[in-house]
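User: Hey, quick favor. My workstation is busy. Could you predict this chain's structure for me?
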Amino acid sequence: MTVPHNRTSTAYDLSLFDTSARKKEEPRAEKAPELKVATSSAAKAGRPVVLAVIAAVFLTVFVLFLYSKATLSELNLRIANETEALRSAQSINTALNNQLSGSVSLDNVEQYAVNNLGMQKINASQEKYVEMNTGTMTEKAGDENGNIFVGIRDWFNGILEYLGF
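Assistant: No problem, here it is.
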């Protein structure tokens, strides 16, 4: 602690170097007592159990992680195999469609009919025209039942038929 400035020379002030005077002036700070927490044997005994539980949790998480990666890898392999099978089936489908479109052309059908079935193209002498009777071809049957309930039923069935039922 310094003395306030009083216009005197501090070179001859020996009180600045006196340690016993400083100790009297400065209050001594008391040291707080250290507290030590005594661990009981029960607390020490529980520590390995906690470590074992934490280790078991980490091991379980690790095993589940490995299992999920293995399952994911297996599913990716199955997807790749099925994709390859799909490509193969699509190429076979394309080949079969090309073969079908080539075999169904009119020239191929005509050649098959002439060569295998013994058919030939028709000419004008083979054409015959048939005349049809232009009159009414159907006759309406007579009304057998004149019952009013049958008529109502027929009328109701006609409405249902008109509606599409």
